[in-house]
Amino acid sequence: MLSSSDFSPETSTPTGGEQQPESMESHAGYDQAMRALTPGQIVTGLVVQLDESGALVDVGTKSEGMIPQQELGERITEDGKPLAVGDSIEVYVLKPEDEDGAAVLSKKRADYESLWKKIILAHEQGEILTAMVVERVRGGLVVDLGVRAFLPASHVSARSVQSLDSFVGRSIKLKILEVDRERKRVVVSHREAMSEIRDKRRDQTLGVLKEGEIRKGIVRRLTDYGAFVDIGGVDGLLHVTEISWSYITHPSEALKVGEHIEVMVLKLDMERERISLGLKQILPDPWEEVGRKYHVGDVVKGKITRVVQAGAFIRLAEGIEGIIPATELGPDKRTRPEDVDLPKTEIEAKIIAIRPSERRITLSLRLAHQDKERKEAHDYMTRQATSGRVTLGDLFGESLAQGMAEREARAEAEASALAAEEPRIEASEPPAAEPEAPAAEPEVTEQAPVESSDAPEASVAEAIEEVTCEPSDSPEASAPEKTP
Question: In angstroms, what CA-CA distances link 277 with 76, 116, 138, 232, 246?
């Protein structure tokens, strides 16, 4: 028989299905280790199975919790990677236990609650977020922060916006102005976000900006006197005279809003926070090639750009403008610019002075017109000479040629000094008559050319009249008539 000593605590063994004290304590500890879940709680679990029906997640309960497919949402982790077995995720407890004793969980709801926490934190810390504009509504825009947020029209931009519809589909920077978790309301501002970004960039830019350096910028605004260019959070003024080597009346002739350009920093005024910029300074200077490309006496083509009291400006090439003084616009030096009907198309003008160091070319319409007339007269006389017919040009060709030469010399003298008076050309003495040679055949002497200081090329009718009216001194006129 067994004695009572055989059942002492130190030596006793379980009999008849009785449980040892150590085993009971271990079971109690396991029950305490099992997590007690409550509805609405967000816990962290480990994905142990993933299929088309959903996912099984170990959340520390007696059995794995189940995430139905409709509650799984996007199968991605917080860092944007595809969800896989072994990933640690946060889940929202829908039911602590179902009829099978398993917890019913939701990843979608957990992501939603986590998103609200981030939005509230971003509002408290003044963080700048990036979101997509998804819809145009009355009074503003709707942006997607994971939750729908309202962007009032007055907070879209610091400048007037022509159409809010142009923002739909764009990702923009935002700052949260108001959060109401209970009403699920979020109000954001793009204007405040951009203002803060520009202030930070402005401080950085002004700290390193130097005169003479070249910067990339964006044309933000055009005015009558120039363009404002953003060169890194700070706007500089690009004056209309610094945009192009050619004369332009408005910046829109060369630039447009939103265009990316490079500019040179010409002047900095840190006290007044003013920055002067230049664009033409980084473009090739066309005046460096003027001395090689153009010469005095050349007849060039150009287009009249503007007319002033002193004359007219003509554009010869990109960046090159010449001036036609008022005295060189018409045949009369007293012609006023407003009295001349200048064509809008290309015209021809003669270069009479070049001063590249002063960026100045002086031209003449009057001399170009005279050259054209002389060429036409010469071509006509050449055609008549080759035709074999005797013309008035043959009779008075020498006189006309001499008159043209004298007129050209006078024109060149006038061009060297635009305000000089026209020089008077005195008529030359006619050559003396040859003495009569009794034994030789009578010769016909040349009539001295008739010249006029006012018009070297006298009209043909006047020349004929003078020749026929003057008495002839030739021997042939005084010779006696021969008898048969």
Answer: 49, 46, 41, 13, 17
Average pLDDT of 345-353? Answer: 85
pLDDT at residue 479 in the model: 42
How far is Cα 183 from Cα 88, in angstroms, rounded to an integer?
31
* Cα within 13 Å of Cα(318), Cβ side: 7
Query: What tens digit of pLDDT does each residue of 26-81 get?
Result: 444 444 455 678 888 888 888 888 888 888 888 888 778 888 888 887 788 777 78
Please tell me the predicted confidence (pLDDT) of residue 218.
93
- CA atoms of 382 and 385, how far apart (whole Å): 5
Q: How confident is the model at residue 88, as a pLDDT?
A: 86
Contacts of residues 235-239 at CB distance under 8 Å and 24 or more positions apart, as own/partner, are 235/275, 236/263, 236/265, 236/275, 236/276, 236/277, 237/274, 237/275, 237/276, 237/277, 238/263, 238/277, 238/278, 238/279, 239/276
Cα–chain-centroid distance for residue 13? 96
Task: Compute the average pLDDT of residues 362-381.
Answer: 85
Place of tokens 């021969």: 482
Helical ranges in 126-264 per DSSP H: 190-208
CB atoms within 10 A of CB 270: 9
* Structural domains of the chain, with CATH: 33-113 (2.40.50.140), 126-194 (2.40.50.140), 209-282 (2.40.50.140), 292-417+450-462 (2.40.50.140)
d(CA 268, CA 207): 12
Residue at 414: amino acid letter: E
Contacts of 248 (CB under 8 A, 6+ apart): 240, 254
Q: Which two tokens stand for residue 420?
A: 């000089």
For residues 175 and 166, give the distance between their C-alpha atoms in angstroms, rounded to a whole number. Answer: 20
pTM: 0.46
User: In this prediction, what percent of the chain has a pLDDT beyond 70?
Assistant: 72
Name the nearest CA neighbour of 92 among 112, 107, 72, 70: 107
Q: Output the pLDDT for position 397.
A: 57
